[in-house]
């Protein structure tokens, strides 16, 4: 057994350790006092001008007014969100680079890509889950089916039905393949770089149907361009309450709740995390943001970092089960 240090040496060692711990605490508190003192960058999932980009800009404006610092919204589309996610994962962990993304991207893409350059749990610090809202299965307004059962019958009569998503391995792809397996409907997946391109082809008659995020679906529904046949998740969306979930229509495995949330790079100081999270939660509960999220088809939440992190860890088995049930193999 290693001998104990002499008493004077033990006191010096303990003093050094205490000093180090106090320095860490002081630096963390100092980070809270001075943050933010330069522009903040928010990287949203999807393309510039898309629904998630619009939500990011609303939060960016609110943060700018709160802290009197510029907030730059910097969309980095490509590779089903991998480009944007990897950029944030490798950013300095100082709270000045944030990501706004969907569970559908953050949790499923690493399950379906063999060489994702980041770890969705290890490389990120959850800040706040701001809302829930799952993808929606849509058809053009002039399409015959009015619900999922009618769609299956129509698809089988048609013999071949194409459906568009925002990429191979996306949650829309997974749910589309699960729907195909369960029903025997002759569905053919057509991946796009974003949902906007898929919807343009659907409106132009190139595609038969597509998936849409809540914000996009609500916009097209209000314009009379689509029918929403079913919604993923455990409950209906408040602003499109007339549309039932897949589960309500008798289809199993579609009850996974999806979320929209903010992240920072891992190892961001705890004081900065707390300050960011508190601000995001307060903004989420503001009348302006609550109305905006509801109008875009999302249900506002605003969770603390610990609860958000726990949700992410516990959801992985469910998403892995979906990947297996859908029969989609990693690329």
Overall pLDDT level? 88
In the CATH scheme, the class of the largest domain would be Alpha Beta
Count of strand segments? 11
CATH architecture of the largest domain: 3-Layer(aba) Sandwich
Number of helices: 12
Strand content: 15-25%
Task: Give the ordered list of helices and strands.
Answer: HEHEHEHHEEHEHEHEHEEHHEH
In CATH terms, what is the fold-level topology of the largest domain? D-Maltodextrin-Binding Protein, domain 2
Spans of at least 5 consecutive residues whose pLDDT stays below 50 are: 1-5, 17-29
Characterise this structure.
The protein has 331 residues and is α/β, with parallel strands linked by helices. The protein folds into two domains: 40-133 and 257-326, Bordetella uptake gene, domain 1 (D-Maltodextrin-Binding Protein, domain 2, 3-Layer(aba) Sandwich), CATH 3.40.190.150; 136-240, Periplasmic binding protein-like II (D-Maltodextrin-Binding Protein, domain 2, 3-Layer(aba) Sandwich), CATH 3.40.190.10. 45% of the residues lie in helices and 17% in strands. The protein has twelve helices and eleven strands. The strands form two sheets. A six-stranded mixed beta sheet has the order 2-1-3-10-4-11, with helices on both faces. Strand 6 (161-165), helix 7 (171-183) and strand 7 (187-191) form a beta-alpha-beta unit. The longest helix has 28 residues, at 7-34.
């Amino acid at each position: 057994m290693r001998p104990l240090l002499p008493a004077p040496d033990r006191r010096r060692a303990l003093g050094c350790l205490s000093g180090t711990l106090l320095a860490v605490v002081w630096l963390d508190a100092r980070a809270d006092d001075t943050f933010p003192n330069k522009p903040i960058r928010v990287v949203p999932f999807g393309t510039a001008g898309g629904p998630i980009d619009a939500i990011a800009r609303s939060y960016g404006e609110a943060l700018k007014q709160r802290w009197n610092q510029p907030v730059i919204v910097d969309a980095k589309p490509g590779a089903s969100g991998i480009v944007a996610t990897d950029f944030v994962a490798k950013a300095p962990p100082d709270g000045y680079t944030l990501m706004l993304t969907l569970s559908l991207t953050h949790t499923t893409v690493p399950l379906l890509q063999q060489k994702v350059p980041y770890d969705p749990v290890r490389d990120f610090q959850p800040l706040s889950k701001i809302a829930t809202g799952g993808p929606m299965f849509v058809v053009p307004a002039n399409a015959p089916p009015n619900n999922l059962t009618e769609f299956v019958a129509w698809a089988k009569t048609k013999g071949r039905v194409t459906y568009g998503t925002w990429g191979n391995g996306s949650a829309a792809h997974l749910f589309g393949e699960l729907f195909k397996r369960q029903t025997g409907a002759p569905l053919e997946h057509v991946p796009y770089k974003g949902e906007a391109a898929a919807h343009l082809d659907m409106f132009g008659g190139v595609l038969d149907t597509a998936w849409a995020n809540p914000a996009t679906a609500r916009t097209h529904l209000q314009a009379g361009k689509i029918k929403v046949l079913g919604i993923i998740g455990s409950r209906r969306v408040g602003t499109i309450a007339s549309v039932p979930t897949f589960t309500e229509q008798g289809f199993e495995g579609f009850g996974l709740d999806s979320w929209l949330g903010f992240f920072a790079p891992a190892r961001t100081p705890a004081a900065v995390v707390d300050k960011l999270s508190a601000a995001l939660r307060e903004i989420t509960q503001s009348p302006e943001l609550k109305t905006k999220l509801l109008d875009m088809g999302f249900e506002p939440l605003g969770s603390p970092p610990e609860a958000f992190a726990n949700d992410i860890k516990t959801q992985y088995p469910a998403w892995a089960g979906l990947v297996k049930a859908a029969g989609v193999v990693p690329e």
